[in-house]
Amino acid sequence: MTRTGVYVCHCGLNIAGVVDVEKVADYAKTLPDVVVAKHYTYMCSEPGQHMIQKDIKAKKLDRIVIATCSPRMHEETFRKAVAEAGLNPYLTEIVNLREQVSWAHTHEPEKATEKAKALVRMGVARAQLLEPLEKRRVSVEKSVLVVGGGIAGIQTSLDLANAGFPVYLVEKAPSIGGRMAQLDKTFPTLDCSACILTPKMVDAAKHPNITMITNAEVTDVKGFVGNYEVSILKKPRYVDEKRCVGCELCTQVCPVKVSDTFNENLTEKRAISIYSAHAVPKIAMINPDCCLRLKYDKGVCGKCQDACEAKAINFEQQPETIQVKVGSVVLAVGSGVFNASEMAELGYGRFKNVISNIEFERISDASGPTGGKILSPKDGKTPKTIAFIQCVGSRDKRFHEYCCRVGCMVTLKQAILAREKIRENVRIYVCYIDMRAFGKGYDEFYRRARDMDIDFVAGLPSEIHSSPDGSLYFDVYDKGTNKLLQIRADLVVLGTGLVPNNDLAEISALFHASRGADGFLLEAHPKLKPLESPMAGVFLAGACQGPKDIPDTVAQASGAAAKALDLLSHGEIELEPLKAIVDEDLCSGCKICASICPFVAIEMKTDIVDGEEKTMAEVIEAMCQGCGLCSSACPTGAIRIQQYSNKQVLTEVEAALAVTCAEGGK
Amino acid sequence: MSLTDLMSMAKPNIEARDKILAKLNGKELVNCFQCIKCTSGCTALKLLELKPHEIIKLVNLGFVDELPSSDIIWTCVTCLKCVQRCPQKASPYHVIIALRNLAVEKEAKVPEGYLKAVSQILETGQVEAYQKIVTRKMETVDRECLKLPKISPPKESFQAVFMKAMEEKTT
């Protein structure tokens, strides 16, 4: 016999607007073992919690059933309240009357009330079998892995390093800086991207607490929150990092030309090159797919080796695997840019003077292919008319349904830059659906663009054509004037949106960080946990979680750093006590559980039992997340999850069926 | 109804709108966000009194009473460009076809050309009657002098199938 208290929450009108809470509470009083049943407007509020605590003490309750919103919302709140009253917090059972009843059956209040009663009955039945549990404590490795060296990764690393924690900053490219390093100016202040980014890149490289590992990828992740073991593959540069001084003598003698990905393939560089003008570290690298020596024959070329005064060239360099132990991971792998050739009607890829907005950034950048002059890649001339076309690949069910969140502002910035650079000698048109200038200072920036004789056409063209003289033209219907306009332009810039990185699927699998329907990494809660991935100890920063501009990225990066600090600062962390338990007598050693465990928390051990060798499953407590997959897969019923044993679940099912049978008998 | 078109004092007809929506077989008309791509690329735009994006908006709002009996719905050349390019899969083409079907049901006036096309198909099996053409040498030629095979009229079974299909479509 237990002494159970049932508490039905109104959640304002969220529950009480549909479910007759009073009836549910009255019904609960009739259930066996229920000593007290009450209802209240907001059970999670202080008076609500206080009511429960008072009853626990006064009525000597030892089981608490709370019929309220989803346990994801307030289970923790109520457990804390119950613990404060001196009862083991795991003797609390949450019944979900909001998401599963009132919100799901808004138009059927009577049936909803019946369902609520049934759920409460099930909750009470289950509560009887709850066991008191204690939280587990594990120690935490006081260092962080930051994956991705763009502005998000750099900001996170600097914040963590400044707080005194060692950081491993892993970057795929030969230099940190990421997407922001490719940009010319930044909206809405038009400060130069390199001017504000490069000092941070240098700070990160010089920081004593930051170990920067460039030209590298994470290949394996083992362990669990607080204790991750990470393998990092550092690919060879074929240049000795300690010797190279970045003088670029080698690039002057290298005979092999390759297209320059940093310049979006608008220019060529050499097979040995430094990643960009502002590269950090400023160390040359040989592209092994193009270098004559590395690709073909050990005897040939070697001109760079002869030219290098620092003797830094090393054709024998091998890949290196670096093992690090970290307590937490911040994923800051950024995003890609939509490939506009997928949208064939716009002619990107067919017409050389149709370019993407990231290509425009390179053209406009002082360190880019044209030295900062706005010139058409088709004929190298200054365009007399530039047209910008918005929402390319975004807000489009054929490609990406989401709004890219930066396209409008990028276009406004680029239109302003074009006006400033070519002055009155260019006509500028912007074709758009909605102009989304929502950030701080953004709408003022939009106004600034309108002041600069930039024409806005409220409508998108259906397709772009090329005239025999190479100029482009398209028809666009303007909502403002109700006229079908034909725009002839010598340069069309497509507002291509941000898309998930190509390798995001691999990264998501590596860190068990799931992805959303849009392909970006998923946050643990869209509003209340935007920085956390659903995997404990793995945090998200920047555009890998969804399209973001620089201010939002930096804010999220500092937020993710704070989250990692919170985890690391205590030295040890509490883990949920719910975990799998193996009944060694029943375990047949079939290994099914070990093979399906997504957290690699089950190992097979061999013991001598009654003089015979027996292989059995063993749960690594710290890694088990209590998901229950093993328990449902076990053919002998040897593994159970605490609080979700077969008996507990079946009791709940029986309670669910009890009245259905009774009603059937009526 | 709280919505009024002050230019004509017209009120929306939600019932008629829902009838049109029901004919769309789940095509997501309501998702149109007026990007105007359909109108920008419309092959028949200059002949249309109402622009494709306007037709969608009118149907969405419920101003549909005039639509099935108007000539506008018959001017669309069904080039399907708007279907290809619509970013919201809400293209006006499907609405126009629904309106045409509704017009036939209501026995509204169907333009002569369409009726001609139907009888043409029934009689010859061709959408267009074959014609004599003039060559560069200004000679008038027909299939016979070009030694092209004769076109035989459709079989009776074709006519039966065609008529049956038409009846099924309209009911």
Characteristics:
heterodimer; A: 666 residues; alpha/beta; Rossmann fold; FAD/NAD(P)-binding domain; 5 domains; 5-stranded parallel sheet; 24% strand; B: 171 residues; mainly alpha; 2 domains; two-stranded antiparallel ribbon; 8 helices; 2 strands; 2% strand; elongated
| Helix/strand order of chain B, N-terminal first | HHHHHHHEEH
User: Low-confidence stretches of chain A at least 5 residues in length (pLDDT < 50)?
Assistant: 661-666
- Helical proportion of chain A, percent range: 25-40%
Q: Biggest sheet of chain A, in brief?
A: 5 strands, parallel
CATH class of the largest domain in chain A: Alpha Beta
Average pLDDT metric of chain A: 93
Q: Give the tally of β-strands of chain A.
A: 34
Rg of chain A, rounded, reads: 31 Å
CATH architecture field of the largest domain in chain A: 3-Layer(bba) Sandwich
Please state the structural category of chain B.
Answer: mainly alpha
**Which outline of chain B best applies?**
elongated
Largest sheet of chain B, in brief, is: 2 strands, antiparallel
